[in-house]
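Following up on my earlier thread - several people asked me to post the actual chain instead of describing it. Fair enough. Here it is, all 285 residues.
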Amino acid sequence: MPDDDHIERILRLKYPLAHLKSKPTPAETVRSFAEQVKQQKNKSNTLRTELAELSAKEIEKLLSAELEKMEQYKKEHLAEQERQRPYNQRSATPDYNYWAKLSFWSPDECAALSLGRDPRVANWDAIKEYTKTSEFAEAYEARREIFVRAEAMGQLSTSTVPSVFLTWANQMQVSVPEELVAAVRELETLISDQKPNNHPEQKRQQQSEKTLQEKHIATRERESLLKLVIGMAIGGYGYDPKASRTSTAKEIVSDLQQRGLSLDEDTVRKYLKEAKGLLPGDLTE
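Reply from S.P.:
Thanks for posting it. Predicted structure:
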């Protein structure tokens, strides 16, 4: 015997107007709407009679098919909404030559440009309400988070020179439209040809790029040294990263003193703690 609940679900999915419980609004009382309701009720009643003759297995199969149709409709509806949003229109494509001429970009502008959008259309205020329902808004939020954190650590700034941003993005493997790179590099070449090498603006830009590169290298070198520290501490001194208290720092200081080198225990502990953070989680928990 077919499941009445399954039958009702099928009828509501196929003919929603026939199952309205609330009274229609004044705008819905026009004749065309009333006619649609009447037609769907007739179809619903006819289908109800037909479904009553089917087996429970056949009903379940039909219900499954209707639910799949509904899910597909939802996906298509969301996709259409995404296509209609301002930041996905052709007008949101940036004029790369214009943006390359600007002296600096903010983190939000970097996020939009790196995703191929005009920052005047695609910006945080316009996008933040869609981060749970829009694929692009979600990508923008993630990209913006990277840039905001880079700003906090001094890798970028609130006013980053375009060429400096592109150098950083390349080092961090952050994708950027080729058209944007070409526009900035072309303008950079023109400026270089027209200015003497000792021009203050050019020197400032070159120094910013050099500083960024040095910070990146220094960070990698520090991590390499910390890896050496934690490796030797575990292998040579039996250091246990999971232990709350150890004598490793004291032993290291003692060995250094025997060789004419001085270092206090607090400093050793600080580096051991920092180096421990590079280990896989299962070695420290």
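The chain has twelve helices and no strands. That should answer part of your original question.
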